[in-house]
Amino acid sequence: MIVGVLSLQGAFREHLRAVQRLGHEAREVKSEKDLRGLQALILPGGESTAMGKIIERNELREPLRDFAANKPTMGTCAGAILLAKDIIGETKNYLGVLDIAIERNAYGSQLDSFVGQGTVGRLHDFPLVFIRAPLIRSVSASVEVIAKLGEDIIGVRSNNLWACTFHPEMTADTRLHALFLQHA
Ligand code: GLN
To answer: Which of 65, 73, 121, 176 has its CA 20 to 30 Å from the CA of residue 39?
Structure first.
């Protein structure tokens, strides 16, 4: 399978490597033409505001929105912010395809970045790496919660769209990538 990773900014290299480790072809996506022929797409973590600016500059907003509206797409951390319909405290969104409300930098300075472990879908003992993570505050009825840390929603799925607030690409555990691609 050919899997694209939005490669404008942030942790895209780690996602490319995870995809390759699973035996798939990984392709950097920097412009519209790179989306052609992809079976799935990953939007990495990084800085959503910076990525948003480059998306505008590279005229990628509509092409990414079209892709995510129909095809398997997973957003991690800042990538989840790019997918969200509602970014709390902000009047605009980026792709606005996933019916969740998300709050940027929701963990205070002490918990700015931390590592945990939890269950994601049917994956147990999954390593959870949070880096200035957002928090999914609410989801619409069509969105399934696949992971929680305490009361916090940290992973969701809605048909072809997957999103998590942690970084599954930052460890050697490729099970979440594998699960996502199994459904692609
Ligand atoms: N704080 C970043 C943002 O708001 C997200 C952090 C991340 O992707 N690790 O875009």
So the answer is: 121
Question: CA torsion angle for 155, 22, 16, 73 (degrees, to 10)?
Answer: -40
* Active-site residue, selected from the candidate residues 14, 24, 169, 177: 169
Query: Residue 155 is part of which domain span?
Result: 2-182
Ligand 1 centroid, distance to 46 Cα (angstroms): 5
pLDDT of residue 144: 98
Whether this prediction's pTM lies above 0.70 is answered by yes
Non-local CB neighbours of 135 within 8 Å, separated by 6+ positions: 102, 103, 106, 107, 152, 153, 154, 165
Catalytic residue among 24, 77, 164, 177: 77
For residue 125, what is the domain's CATH number?
Answer: 3.40.50.880
